[in-house]
Amino acid sequence: MGRSLWTVIRRDLRLALRQGSDSLMVVTFFVLCVVLFPFGVGPESGVLERISAGILWVTALLACMLSLDRLFQQEYEDGSLDLLTLSPVPLPVLVLGKVVAHWLTTGLPILLAAPVLAVLLHMNGDGFAVLVAAMALGTPTLSLIGAVGAALVLGARRGGVLLSLLVLPLYIPVLVFGVSAVDAAVMDFGFRAQLLILGAMLLGALALCPWAAAAALRQAVD
Amino acid sequence: MHRFANPARFLRLATILLPWAVGVTVISLVAGLAYALVLSPADYQQGETVRIMYIHVPAAWMGMFAYTMMAIASAVALIWKHPLADLAGKASAPVGAAFTLICLVTGSLWGKPMWGTWWVWDARLTSMLILLFLYLGYMALQSAFDDPRRGQKAASVLALVGFVNVPIIKFSVDWWNTLHQPASVVKMGGPAIDASMLVPLLLMALAFKGYYVVVLLIRIRTEIAEAKIRTLRMAELHG
Question: Is B2 part of any domain?
Answer without folding.
Answer: no
